[in-house]
């Protein structure tokens, strides 16, 4: 249940009116989600999502919300934050930072076929190009510096073989980040968490990307690797699915052809994507935050994915 802070219909109605979105006709708490309070808010003008941010601060939020606004303005199907008369898109409800965004049509496709991974690859490349001229900057807060900080914190919870893998993979990623090929990777705003549950589909038609609250500036290849590691991995085995991966990479490459450095570093960044989510899942699992709202995901899944990425590296030339 993802209503951590109650909002009354009258509070929601006055917010919707101040955003010029009409008169509230229905307010319904959204059950999914683990981070924020979310409501579907319907007015006589349309359907919206009201989010109260439970952990992110007034300082962090503008990067995410203005990125969504920028992408929506470029025709990328993402929730578009509504502005008030003064142009503000970050509001306050019940003492919490809040936003109202457009509601995406469709639902998550949790058992994707090649056609779905192709649609994600195509739209991901379009989103990267559309974000290239976004003028705010915030690093990916879950990138290499965070991995270096967090690995020593989670190591005591692992057995010897797991600890050896985690240490050696971190060393490999620190080394990779210092190579000329890595420095040559194109960068820009990335979603960084575009798993199956953060994309909407209506049948085979992709209707939107959402949940931008891990976004940041990072390499475009890292974003693609995160997608390949979720959309093109079988659950629960953690085994690479070649047909879906080919479909995703081909579709991405048709919109934005991969550079030589990106082709070279795809295997390393697939490992980076697996490492990132192994670390965060270990962290959430073993060190739940105070009054945690998180239902921890299984960390061993990304340990399996990482081992697979090391033992059976997938090269770009095998896919495109
Ligand atoms: N803009 C949107 N349009 C349609 N549905 C949305 C939108 N934003 C959130 N949702 C719905 O709310 C659920 C929870 O949102 P999510 O961003 O995943 O929450 P959390 O950040 O708490 O994990 C999603 O699974 C989706 O069903
Ligand atoms: N996708 C991550 C967890 C992030 O959760 P989200 O609900 O905010 O997408 C994982 O699977 O570990």
Automatic annotation (TrEMBL):
GO MF entries: ATP binding; homoserine kinase activity
Keyword Ligase tagged: no
Positions of the Aminoglycoside phosphotransferase domain: 27-245
GO biological process: threonine biosynthetic process
Pfam family, one: APH
Pathway assigned in UniProt: Amino-acid biosynthesis; L-threonine biosynthesis; L-threonine from L-aspartate: step 4/5
Catalytic activity: L-homoserine + ATP = O-phospho-L-homoserine + ADP + H(+)
Enzyme Commission code(s) on record: 2.7.1.39
UniProt KW keywords: Amino-acid biosynthesis, ATP-binding, Kinase, Nucleotide-binding, Threonine biosynthesis, Transferase
InterPro entries referenced in this protein's UniProt entry, alphabetically: Aminoglycoside_PTrfase, Homoserine_kinase_II, Kinase-like_dom_sf, Pseudomonas-type_ThrB
Family from the record: Belongs to the pseudomonas-type ThrB family.
HAMAP family: Homoser_kinase_2
NCBIfam families: PRK05231.1, thrB_alt
Name recorded for this polypeptide: Homoserine kinase
Organism: Limnohabitans parvus II-B4
Organism lineage string: Bacteria, Pseudomonadati, Pseudomonadota, Betaproteobacteria, Burkholderiales
